[in-house]
Amino acid sequence: MKTLVIYYSFDGNTRLVSRSIAEAAGADVLELRTEDQPKSKGFSKYFWGGRQVFMKTRPVLLPFDKDPSAYDLLFIGAPVWAFAPAPAMSSFLEKSGLKGKKVAVFCCSGGGPGRTLDRMAETLAADNAVIGRMHFVEPLRSPQAAQDKARRWVQEVLAS
Predict the structure, then answer these.
(1) 40, 9 in Cβ contact below 8 A?
(2) What span, in angstroms and rounded, lies between the C-alpha atoms of 135 and 80?
(3) Correct CATH for 3-159 of 3.40.50.360, 3.30.1490.100, 3.30.420.140, 1.10.3720.10
(4) What mean pLDDT comes out for the span 133-152?
(5) Which of 48-57, 97-106, 110-119 has the lowest mean pLDDT?
(6) CA torsion sign, 33 to 34 to 39 to 42?
(7) For residue 98, what are the CA distances in angstroms to 125, 126, 152?
(8) Is the dihedral of CA 46, 34, 133, 135 positive or negative?
């Protein structure tokens, strides 16, 4: 089964988990990038990110180096911003046109997932089979524990 990990990461938490998933699943990786990606700096990043979520901003994504439609299984991950997926992930989900895929969604946050996993799954479920969901809390604080959790989750998803 051809597998791809698609993710957006701002501070590196989702990147850490995504790379662990890709390694465990033998998957290719597609990192979503935006045209207007600011540098991560102090408290202003929370204001900027929260404003994007509440204003329902959909940033323009840079061109992909992988075609998600060419894969059978997709692991799709995003950070949680204001209890929702980061706007870059919302841009991807709304415009992806994915159909007939097996999909596992995951998110990373400093607290709870809010409605992030539900929103991601609901957006994808109409045309795809959502076969897994997972939430990771502050992966960069305990990288080994996050990597181990990601590997275990991959095995569960692959077995389903």
Answers:
(1) no
(2) 10
(3) 3.40.50.360
(4) 97
(5) 48-57
(6) negative
(7) 10, 10, 26
(8) negative
pLDDT of residue 33: 92
Residue 47 near residue 76 (C-beta atoms within 8 A): no
Query: Could you tell me the sign of the dihedral formed by the alpha carbons of 54, 60, 64, 68, in that order?
Result: positive
- Residue 71 per-residue DSSP state: -
Helix residue ranges per DSSP H, the chain:
13-25, 44-54, 87-95, 116-125, 143-159
- Cα distance between residue 101 and residue 105, in whole Å: 12
Question: Which residue type, as a one-letter code, is found at position 152?
Answer: R
DSSP string across 139-157: GGGSHHHHHHHHHHHHHHH
